[in-house]
UniProtKB/TrEMBL annotation:
InterPro entries: PuuD-like. It comes from the Eukaryota. This is Uncharacterized protein. One of its GO terms (cellular component) is cytosol. GO terms for molecular function: hydrolase activity, acting on carbon-nitrogen (but not peptide) bonds, in linear amides. It comes from Opuntia streptacantha.
Length: 104
């Protein structure tokens, strides 16, 4: 990451002679953060692609029975997650409603 940013830093030093306004300095920092976030996103995306590739390789080796069992298990987990999530959302709504009633 640093070698990629180095030419830009050298250019700025040579062409601004340290005379950046506060607004220009703030914008450069924002641009730097954007570049760093882009590298992080790209790296995370690559890791996720590798995980998917490995998972696909393992799953392709499974028997029909194993695949069916796994699908049933994940369907059940999805149902449980949906129920728990709905319960938590309802709980938050009640807390919010009670807080609104108390402030009146």
């Amino acid at each position: 990451q640093e070698p990629v940013l180095e030419p830009g830093a050298v250019f700025l030093e040579e062409n601004t002679a340290g005379a950046l306004s506060l607004q220009e300095e703030k914008r450069l920092k924002q641009m730097g953060a954007t570049v760093r976030n882009g590298y992080g996103y790209k790296k995370l995306n690559k890791v996720n692609e590798e995980r998917e590739r490995v998972a696909r390789f393992v799953i392709e080796k499974m028997s029909i029975e194993q695949l069916s069992d796994m699908m049933s298990f994940y369907y059940m987990m999805g149902q449980i997650c949906s129920e728990v999530l709905e319960s938590k959302i309802q709980h938050l709504k009640l807390i919010h409603e009670n807080a609104s009633d108390d402030s009146e």
